[in-house]
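Table S2 (continued). Query chain:
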Amino acid sequence: MARDPSIPPESLEEILAWLHPDREAAGVIYVQLRQDLAKIFMWNHCNDPEGLTDQVFDRVAKKVHQLRETYEGDPRLFFYGVQRNLIKEASKKVKTQVSLEDCDLPTNDPEVEETENMREECLHSCLQKLSPEKRELILNYYAKEKQAKIEHRTEMARQLGTTVETLRVRVYRLRATLEECIERCLNRMAQRK
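Corresponding output:
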């Protein structure tokens, strides 16, 4: 990993002086601290524990001059705090990255497209068999996403004069009826082939 140019060259000397006034004792603490940080990164299943350990020291090195004057207590605790933040950052990165091996890439498989088209046709047919009130209820229930979905469903329950839980049960029953209808429809279509 390339050295960060914003880290002052004398920062290692300042870190050692901050860890312990005796340079030899500071060196022992430094080596032990690096080993401990790397182990903790490994225990947390982080990729590249050594690289992350370097990042901890780089972040501390950028602030060490100010830290020596203001920080009270064992300096190693500050390193562990920086490490905790890096572990959180690493776990967020992992959550946002997906391996292509785990993804089903869209294909132009005619059979898949035909099945999807049949399923959609059956859904529309089954929705038409519902009463207008039930059709409107289930379509409205699934109309929004994320936070808007939660707020929308709360508002729906309020308008219907019921609780969100009762609304969920009603929609669950409607959905079960729709799924049965869709399965029957798909079976009829498959038999016609």
